[in-house]
Amino acid sequence: MVAYVPQRTHDDCMIAAFATATDRTYEEVAEAFGVPCNGDGYPSLPPVGGVNLLAVPVPLLSLGFNAVLCLSTEATGNPSLRLSTSDALKTLLPSRTAVVTAPDAHLRVLGIQHAMAWKDSAVIDCREPEGKGPKLDRLTLSAVVLLTPTTNREALN
Fold it and tell me: S-S: 16 plus which of 89, 96, 105, 126, CB 3.0-4.6 Å?
């Protein structure tokens, strides 16, 4: 099984998934996202929703990663936006590192999304023991954040 960074709360999946995908610590990613952690290491997040996916690409530059955010038609429910489908986004993943989001199986009725790492051709769910994630073909992706290392990390600091 791929090494993973486990979630610490019910709504910190974005921090744990990006830490897992980028091989950074939980604290490094939380700090980059502007989320303070208390003395016990728990993040100070809004009551529901965690980190906003739209806010992650710029902070990832400080960690040495370019991020391309791709939304699916399933995320918006608006076909006139001409976004890619969930299945089309899945074709972007082989041989790449990413974070994927899909409707949270436990909170689907509330429209809550769950973030999971995609690394070494596997979904890694940081809320599950040992990061065991579902098979990609069983997910309806709302978004994918493709990650590539920057070529000049020092220039970003």
Answer: 126
Q: How many whole angstroms separate alpha carbon 106 and alpha carbon 31? A: 27
Cα 93 from Cα 121, distance rounded (Å): 8
The domain of 66 spans 13-150
End-to-end CA distance of the chain: 33
Query: How many other CB atoms are there within 10 angstroms of residue 74's CB atom?
Result: 18
Residue 6 lies in a domain: no
Cα–Cα distance for residue pair 26/42, rounded to 1 Å: 10
Q: What's the CATH number where 48 sits?
A: 3.90.70
Number of alpha carbons in the 13 Å side-chain half-sphere of residue 33: 28
**How many folded domains does the chain comprise?**
1
In a domain, 4, yes or no: no
DSSP 149: E
